[in-house]
Amino acid sequence: MYEPDDPETRYAEDGRTQIRTLSRARQDRPAAQDWVHCLRVVEGEAAGRRLRVAEQPIDIGRRAPCTLVLPDPEVSGVHCSVRVPLGQTMLEVVDRQSTNGCFVDGRPVLQSARLRVGGLLQLGHHVLVHEHLPRAELEAAEAREADLARAAHYVKALLPPPMVQGPVRTDWFYQPSAQVGGDAFGHLVLDANHIAGYVIDVAGHGAGAALHTVAVMNTLRQRALPDTDFADPAHVLSRLNEAFAMDTHDGLCFTMWYGVYDIARRRLRYSAGGHHAACLAVPGEAALRQLHTPGLVVGALEGAPYRNAETEVPPESRLYLFSDGLFELVDTRGRQWTYADVLPFIAGSAPGEGEAARLAGQVRHAAGARTLDDDCSVVVVTFSS
Amino acid sequence: MDMTVADLGEAAREVALSGRLDMAGVDRIEAKFNAAAISNGQPLLLDLGSVEFVSSLGVRMLITTAKAMRQRALPFVTHVPAGPVREMLTVAGIDSLIPMFETLEEARATILRR
After folding, report:
1. Fewest beta carbons less than 10 Å away: which of A93, A289, A362, B40?
2. Chain A residues with CB inside 8 Å of B90's CB?
3. DSSP 8-class letter at A248
């Protein structure tokens, strides 16, 4: 009788039928010790951050030395602590006598509570979800997030420092969304009498949009557009439209507002490509001047026309350039905000250092917006006397 | 973001979108939309009357649709009533690329004439 020496082969009870196992279903689930508990911030200014949780308690609050610091006025200095009790899959949340309390799946935490995998922990304006992930998957996610953070840092490093003296002063606010995005702005000193300024907004988020933003910014910073009159806004948009055609740039396109200020004549010449109006607040004028020209999103269509417009700029006028992330918010009543909703905030904005950040904060506070779905850029330009 | 598809006889296809054309909406709908709206080889009427919001990614989707229809030499019109969505698309310059009609009747009459 044939005695198989292949361990995957055996005989059935009849002694004649050979059964050979060709493959087995593999156990792909990692061993228990290879899973990691995390809390990931899904709502609030710190959205996107992730914190590993183990048996040693960790503190969450508004101040160091908390392990997770949340920039939130409604979070106490040390708000709560979280740990994984030995041998358990739920997290233990302990309220550290916080002023506003914390909530697990909508229920207030009375001293302590258990947070299941997938459950939500709310403190202040922040919401965190309990994740339980294989270590390898977590490490891959952390590596991706670190790459995106580096990309966001690089984009921010390209932004010009505020101009604090001279005929034109600038103040700006920039906050990317949870993922790195496609907002940017800058200025060019063309000659002793002309300064150009711009804001761009690439459609979408993530590394692709950021790469495109960087490419456009560097082209402008280095004036790497041949045969281009950088003092002619419509010509600049037209040349960028040719140089960054979406058909040859992975389908990416962007909106842009570009203006050139003639210091001696006190005149601002500008052009827009798919971008909403900039606002000029003029002393003594009740209404904002809205500076816009019709023009297609840049890169969309070869040969798309762009046109210039001009306005005179009285002394101490202030120009507000901003991306749609300032106003494309959904408020606490579920209403979608539009460009028109931010005009009263701009009209009532108090000048001075930090105006751009204050303006962005006022708009978001009024809307009750907790997270940024889009990047938000605001540039305030003051034209000196 | 939801989508319904109807044929205007054999003359054209009408695709209606409803909801928010934001990042999640575009992710959800784009492949199905391209298959229904572009690949079938008919003139297209895109009804945005029930769309509440269009993000920059939604604008990009409209642009790529317009370019694809131009490449195929097929007419493409939209129904976009007066309101925030129409204002947003006008700012983006979409009205220079795709005819936008304030009523569905005008849009249908136009696409059936072409």
Report:
1. B40
2. 294
3. G
